[in-house]
Amino acid sequence: MNLYPTPLADLYEIRHTPTGDARGRFTRLFCEKELSAIRTSLHFPQINFSETHGCGTIRGLHYQTPPVAEAKLVRCLRGRVFDVAVDLRAGSPTFLHWHALELAEDNDRAVFIPEGFAHGFQTLTDETHLLYMHTAPWAPAYEVGLRHDDPRLAIAWPQPVSTLSKRDRSYALIDNVFTGVVL
After folding, report:
1. Which residues are within 8 A (CB) of 105 and not within 5 positions of it... i.e. 6 or more apart?
2. What is the DSSP code string of 40-105?
3. Of the listed 12, 62, 134, 148, which one is catalytic?
C-alpha cells in the first residue's frame, strides 16, 4: 500500500499492491498500521456498498457536518468512476477546490477523504460497485450536499449527466454566506 498526497491537504490517493499467482490475486484493502502515516488509529464503525447502474450517473456531492463529520476510504470494486472530493474546511487554503481520481476495479486505487470534504462520483461504466469505509455512522440529520453543477466549483465531469437523484438535484448553489465547515 502506497500513499500519495494530492493537491488538497489531507486528501490521499492510495495505491494498493496486489500479489498474485495462477490462482488469482490478493489485495489488502485496509491496514491500520500502514495508514497511520495519514492518521493514527483509524476506526471505521460503518462500511457501505453502493451499486450504480448506467454510465454518466452522478451520486453526490455529500458530506456530514459536526458533530458527526466523517472521513471516508473509498474503493471501486467493479467498473470505473470519476471520484471527486471538494475541500469545504473553513480557513483551508484550498477551500472550495476539488480534486478527482479515476477509481476502477483494475487500477488498484482508493481515496482517503478527510472530514470537512464533500464527496461524489460519476460512473464511467454501466455497472459500478463502490466500497465505502466511514469513520462515523450515517446521520441523516447531519448530511448535506452540494450541487454537482455549482459554478463556484466548476467541476469538469467527464460525461454528460445521465441520472441524478431528486435530492442531489435539489441542493442549493453555494452562496457568499457559506464560509465552510468548522471541524
Report:
1. 76, 77, 78, 79, 80, 129
2. TT---SEEEEEEEESTT-EEEEEEE-TTS---EEEEEEESEEEEEEEE-BTT-TTTT-EEEEEEET
3. 62
Domain of 82 in residue numbering reads as 2-19+27-168
| Residue 182 falls inside a structural domain | no
Q: The domain that contains 86 carries what CATH number?
A: 2.60.120.10
Instruction: Indicate if 62 belongs to the active site.
Output: yes
0.85 surpassed by pTM = yes
Q: What is the DSSP letter of 183?
A: -
Q: What confidence tier does 42 reach under pLDDT thresholds 50, 70, 90?
A: confident
Strand partners, 62: 119, 145
d(C-alpha 180, C-alpha 183), whole Å: 9
pLDDT in tens, 158-178: 999 999 999 999 999 999 999
Q: What angle do CA 52, 56, 58 make, to 5 degrees?
A: 65
Choose the catalytic residue: 132, 134, 148, 171.
132
How many Å is the maximal CA-CA distance in the chain? 58
Q: Residue 104, CB half-sphere, CA atoms under 13 Å: how many? A: 7
